[in-house]
């Protein structure tokens, strides 16, 4: 989780990722930042994020993104 | 028939409501389907066959994929992990064939009705260039109404079934209703299956609350369309028809009026559409969120025609940017130039695909293709330069959250939108560039004051337009600030509430631009 927070803070330094739970709905993450984030996640955690998983619900908070990573790791 | 014709407002829609109200719950969805097909038939006659074929094809493909999934899951039970992976992949490939085949089947109708003439003209030009004496004739084809909208909806259903995001529908009538629901069939919104399935098939009761809320929204749509859009139409028509005689300032005003007219017509239609569905307690997705408060073009497109933007995002932008070849390219770029550049590249390739298709979706013509690439370039430049602008603001101590900075951003975005809409409306690229040239080189305010009253509108019309726009602006401002004006109206005493409704009705009747001297705007998006 710490690694993920580091990645997120590097991409969007102005956002408090421990608190915000509407990253997509509140427009903190735009589509380009999501692309950067996916690249970082795939590199760092050795998973493949399929297009079907790119829904606001999976990216609205650091916790939700972490749950997605864990689920993808499990499926692998 | 359109949603603003008296036939729809005073005959068709009330009759649908009456029948729906009287019929038992289980028959209500079937009745809605029947009414939707009647609506479609009244506009497109025998072309109704095509919406039926689209529904049938996605229904059958959905069932086929569902059966395949069941068979796959059954066979997977006794397999080892590695074997499972190979087996799953094999099934995925088979499903992909069904998906692609059905999408192509649906796109073939769209291509035939909308794009064949355009591509034949290009082929003819190529043949002429290489001296081949063959010429394909231009054939006038009347397309089924809303084909561009329901085809995208059909594709979204198919892809969501393929991705196992939704369970395919077992009942053909339900798929038919999803694709042909009469309020959405002409101009959208492009609703996803998951967004409407819970409401549309339930046969919910018509309540006093929904009736009032629905009609309230319909009235607001009529206000925008009849008082503003229809009034501006004559000015816009003349300005774009006689680019040669009017001064740059008058043409600029024509472009501004066109953009306002387009917004009032399309968002007004959405009000009538969403309000009509609301009467049956069916919640449709919103298509506009105060677009003229946007601070950049990217934001504008997340507030304007929202359902189309989301469709492109989910089914083109992410699949293209995360496709194997693009990922491979971005990985090699990332190693050499870092993550930011590689993401920019991935985004740029996907954006190029999105805006090529977005331009073409709006129409088969070079002006629309240019309109698409114009936005592609603006968004790409925004993506590249925004980090530098943020840094510059920090260095120069400019507060990006200050009112003046944000106001400047909104004005800049609005001007860029005006230029985009100029290309959207102009009949040819030559006319569009002539207009741009005249606006920037022959901008004469004194000529404007002489010409302004010669384009079909008098000073009273301008006052009415200004006041009506002020009403829309205040309502938009309230919405932007998160103030729920409709709920507030509902909380008022009944006398005040109904006085407001009657004032709105009277306002539309008195100030609506109909009768001699006015040309009502034809449903602009229904032609796409």
Task: Explain how this protein is built.
- The complex is a heterodimer of chains A (76) and B (528).
- Chain A has 76 residues and is mainly α.
- Chain A has a single domain, classed as Non-ribosomal Peptide Synthetase Peptidyl Carrier Protein, Chain A (Orthogonal Bundle).
- In chain A, helix 1 runs antiparallel to helix 2.
- The two termini of chain A are 19 Å apart.
- Chain B is mainly alpha-helical and 528 residues long.
- Chain B folds into 3 domains: 200 residues, no CATH class; 164 residues, no CATH class; 136 residues, no CATH class.
- Helix content of chain B is 74%, strand content 0%.
- Chain B is built from 21 helices and no strands.
- The two termini of chain B are 16 Å apart.
- Chains A and B meet through helix 2 of A and helix 12 and helix 14 of B.
Largest sheet of chain B: none
Number of E-type strands of chain A: 0
- Rg of chain B, rounded, reads 25 Å
Distance between the termini of chain B: 16 Å
Name the shape of chain B in a single word. Answer: globular
Helix fraction bin of chain A: 55-70%
Shape descriptor of chain A reads globular
Largest sheet of chain A: none
Task: Examine the coordinates and then state which fold CATH places here, giving the name of the CATH topology of chain A.
Answer: Non-ribosomal Peptide Synthetase Peptidyl Carrier Protein, Chain A
**Contiguous uncertain segments of 5+ residues of chain A:** none
Protein chains sharing the most extensive interface? A-B, 14 and 22 residues
> Which assembly state applies to the chains in this document?
heterodimer
Structure in a nutshell:
Chain A has four helices and no strands. With 76 residues, chain A is an all-alpha fold.
List keywords for this structure.
heterodimer, A: 76 residues, mainly alpha, Non-ribosomal Peptide Synthetase Peptidyl Carrier Protein, Chain A, 4 helices, 57% helix, B: 528 residues, 3 domains, 21 helices, 74% helix
């Amino acid at each position: 989780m710490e690694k993920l927070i580091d990645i997120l803070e590097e991409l969007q330094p102005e956002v408090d990722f421990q608190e915000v739970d509407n990253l997509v709905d509140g427009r903190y993450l735009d589509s380009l930042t999501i692309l950067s984030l996916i690249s970082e996640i795939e590199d760092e955690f050795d998973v493949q994020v399929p297009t079907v998983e790119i829904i606001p619900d999976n990216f609205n908070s650091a916790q939700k993104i972490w749950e997605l990573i864990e689920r993808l790791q499990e499926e692998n | 028939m359109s949603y603003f014709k008296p036939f729809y407002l005073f005959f068709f829609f009330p009759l649908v409501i009456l029948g729906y109200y009287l019929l038992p719950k289980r028959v209500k969805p079937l009745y809605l389907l029947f009414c939707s097909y009647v609506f479609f038939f009244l506009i497109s006659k025998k072309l109704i066959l095509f919406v039926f074929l689209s529904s049938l094809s996605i229904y059958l493909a959905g069932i086929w994929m569902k059966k395949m999934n069941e068979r796959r899951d059954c066979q997977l039970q006794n397999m080892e992990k590695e074997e499972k992976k190979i087996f799953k992949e094999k099934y995925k490939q088979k499903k992909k064939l069904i998906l692609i085949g059905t999408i192509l089947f649906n796109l073939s109708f769209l291509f035939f009705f909308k794009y064949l003439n355009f591509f034949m003209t290009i082929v003819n030009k190529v043949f002429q260039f290489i001296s081949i004496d063959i010429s394909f004739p231009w054939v006038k084809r009347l397309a089924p109404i809303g084909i561009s909208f329901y085809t995208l909806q059909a594709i979204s259903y198919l892809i969501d079934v393929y991705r196992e995001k939704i369970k395919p529908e077992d009942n053909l009538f339900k798929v038919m209703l999803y694709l042909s629901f009469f309020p959405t069939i002409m101009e959208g919104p492009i609703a996803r299956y998951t967004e409407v399935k819970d409401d549309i098939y339930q046969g919910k009761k018509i309540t006093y609350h929904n009736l009032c809320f629905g009609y309230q929204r319909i009235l607001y749509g009529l206000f925008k369309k009849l008082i503003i859009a229809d009034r501006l139409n004559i000015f816009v028509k003349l300005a774009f028809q006689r680019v040669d005689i009017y001064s740059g300032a008058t043409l600029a005003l024509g472009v501004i009026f066109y953009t306002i007219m387009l917004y009032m017509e399309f968002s007004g239609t959405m009000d009538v559409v969403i309000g009509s569905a609301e009467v049956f307690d069916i919640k449709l997705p919103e298509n506009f969120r105060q677009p003229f408060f946007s601070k950049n073009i990217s934001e504008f497109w997340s507030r304007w025609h929202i359902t189309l933007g989301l469709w492109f995002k989910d089914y083109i932008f992410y699949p293209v940017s995360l496709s194997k070849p693009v990922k491979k390219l971005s990985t090699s770029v990332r190693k050499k130039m870092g993550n930011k550049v590689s993401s920019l590249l991935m985004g740029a390739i996907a954006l190029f695909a999105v805006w090529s298709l977005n331009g073409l979706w709006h129409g088969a013509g070079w002006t629309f293709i240019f309109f698409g690439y114009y936005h592609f370039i603006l968004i790409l430049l925004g993506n590249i330069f925004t980090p530098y602008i943020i840094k510059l603001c920090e260095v120069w101590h400019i507060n990006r959250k200050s009112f003046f900075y944000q106001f400047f951003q909104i004005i800049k975005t609005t001007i860029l939108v005006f230029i985009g809409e100029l290309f959207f409306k102009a009949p040819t690229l030559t006319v569009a560039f002539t207009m741009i040239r005249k606006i920037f080189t022959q901008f004469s305010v004194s000529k404007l004051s002489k010409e302004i009253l010669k384009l079909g509108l008098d000073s009273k019309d301008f006052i009415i337009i200004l006041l009506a726009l002020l009403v829309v602006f205040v309502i938009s401002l309230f919405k932007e600030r998160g103030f729920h004006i409709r709920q507030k109206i509902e909380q008022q005493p009944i006398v005040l509430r109904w006085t407001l409704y009657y004032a709105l009705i009277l306002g539309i009747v008195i100030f609506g631009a109909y009768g001699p001297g006015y040309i009502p705007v034809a449903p602009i998006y229904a032609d796409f």
